[in-house]
Amino acid sequence: MTAPLPGFAGRTYLFQVDNGAAFRNAYSADGTRLRWEGLGESAGQWEDVGLHVAHVGPELYFVSWTEASGITVSHVMDLAALTVRVFWTYEGEGGRVGELHTGTLEPLA
Predict the structure, then answer these.
(1) pLDDT at position 4, please?
(2) Structure pTM?
C-alpha cells in the first residue's frame, strides 16, 4: 500500500519569511523533491533537493531537507492556513547556528 500524495505535491508556492527572505518553491508531482529559487536579495540562487515528508495532521506536513551547502531546513506546512514554521541551521562563526522563523504561502500553480 502506498502513502497518499502530500497536499503540496505538484504545486508551486511563493514562500515569504518573516525576515524578508522570499522563495519560489516548486514541489515535484510525487512530493519527493523541491526546487527552491531565491527571490529579492537571494535572486539567482536555487537548488533541487530531496525531501523527507511526514503527514502530521489534516493538511499539516513536516518537511525537511539538507542543501549542498550544509544548510538544513525543516518546515511545518499548514496548507489550510497557508502558513509555515521553519527552522534552519547553518555553519556560522563559532559553530552551528539555528534560526526559527514563520512565513506565509501563496499558491502560484
Answers:
(1) 84
(2) 0.92
